[in-house]
Write a structure and sequence with these properties.
Length: 418
């Protein structure tokens, strides 16, 4: 091993709690450690909030350690109560399996599963065939109900109601750790800080059943400086699936982050060297926009490829101004913008801006669109829409049969004739 990856994770802000810092740092510096993180199959896609554990896995993988990604086909059937105020909606097995395959495919983009240095498994393979009575006798007897109820995840739910099926979740997650220890020699489980109690339960189970040492590490539960949950916006989650959130919109999410978050996000969501990030930390005032575009490019490159990141950067520059691309490139690059096709017959008749801006998602309602028109906040082809009576027609189409709609300074959409 080269430089100790534990120090890298700590310097980048990945570490919230660790079971035995000295022991884990020593292990990561002296030998190849097998580690795992679980991802329950609760949706067809992971979102930007999932990038914290994913990026931590990438750093460890690059440092020569072995990664195991557990797709939680079994635990999803129970539902993790951590960080939830109410019970999760129960999903059928077919849906869970389909969503698990989609998540496996997404994780492969970051970890490159080869069955040797990066492994993907589904805990449904060992959880679904379990004999319940035998499981309680072999595993359940090692758990103290008093200790489980003291865990933060369960304490928060007791007042509002905790179902018996959810109460089993900690046992199953601990059992996952035991299985992975036995089969792969896995000695490190990582996860969000709300998983601390569950991960420690696995550490304790391995100690009790196998008489062996295992470690736990959790990541901070990140929020933006404004207090918003990472990966969430007013329009919804920032999904990693390009069919749900385009690479352009993904890029714009990072470009539009709060100035106070830029350096922190560069450390966590990119692979840029820390020395380079420290240089960017010195940028002030309008220069911070340079750092934001670097953040957006690097994050988009990791998730959607360098080619998509280039297209998103050029489209963003073409839409909002700048010197990154030449004038001759603008037409091609604007095709990376979110686009809606509108029937020519509608434009010939004329469409009210309130209707079209709401239809393409630039405003949440026609009322809000009208309010922005009165304030001079809506634009077509960089021209302010100054009247509620103004209609958008074929006359607003350029030679390339398109028009650009803009709400404020940061939200833009391309309309083409369909």
């Amino acid at each position: 091993m080269s430089e100790n990856v534990y120090d890298e994770l700590k310097a980048r802000g990945f570490i919230a709690q660790v079971s035995d810092e000295a022991a884990l740092r020593k292990a990561l510096g002296e030998k190849r450690v097998t580690f795992y993180i679980g991802f329950d199959s609760t949706a067809t896609s992971l979102h930007a909030g999932s990038l914290v554990p994913i990026m931590a896995m990438v750093h460890l993988r690059r440092a020569g350690h072995r990664a195991i990604a557990v797709v939680g086909g079994g635990t999803t059937m129970v539902g993790d109560p951590s960080g939830r105020e109410e019970i999760r909606r129960m999903l059928d097995e077919a849906t869970i399996r389909a969503q698990g395959k989609a998540i496996h495919s997404q994780l492969d983009r970051y970890l490159h599963f080869d069955g040797k240095d990066a492994i993907a498994v589904d805990n449904a393979d060992w959880l679904l065939p379990l004999n319940y009575i035998q499981f309680l006798r072999d595993i359940g007897r090692h758990f103290s109900v008093n200790r489980m109820l003291a865990a933060e995840a369960y304490k928060q739910r007791l007042e509002k109601g905790l179902s018996f099926i959810e109460f089993n979740y900690q046992l199953l997650q601990a059992y996952d750790y035991l299985i992975l220890y036995r089969k792969y020699g896995c000695t490190l489980q990582m996860g969000g800080d709300d998983q601390w109690g569950n991960i420690l339960a696995g550490v304790d189970l391995i100690r009790r059943v196998e008489g062996a040492a295992a470690e736990a590490l959790t990541f901070p539960l990140l929020t933006t400086s404004s207090g918003a949950k990472m990966g969430k916006t007013a329009k919804g989650a920032i999904w990693l699936d390009p069919e749900l959130v385009s690479p352009y919109d993904f890029y714009q999410y990072w470009v539009n982050c709060d100035d106070r978050d830029v350096v922190r996000f560069l450390r966590i969501y990119t692979l840029l060297p820390l020395d380079e990030i420290r240089r960017l930390e010195g940028l002030k005032d309008s220069e911070i926009n340079v750092a934001k575009h670097i953040l957006a490019f690097e994050a988009t490159k990791i998730t959607h490829s360098k080619e998509e990141a280039e297209k998103a950067r050029k489209a963003s520059t073409a839409a909002f101004g700048g010197k990154v691309i030449s004038k001759s490139e603008v037409k091609a690059d604007i095709t990376g913008l979110p686009t809606t096709a509108v029937a020519r017959v509608r434009l010939e008749a004329g469409i009210s801006p309130a209707e079209l801006f709401t239809e393409v998602g630039l405003t949440p309602s026609r009322g809000e669109a009208k309010r922005l028109i009165k304030q001079g906040g809506l634009y077509v082809n960089d021209e302010t829409i100054s009247s509620l009576e103004r209609l958008l027609t074929v006359k607003d189409l350029g030679p390339d049969k398109m028009m650009l709609l803009k709400a404020g300074k940061k939200k833009i959409h391309r309309v083409v004739v369909g």
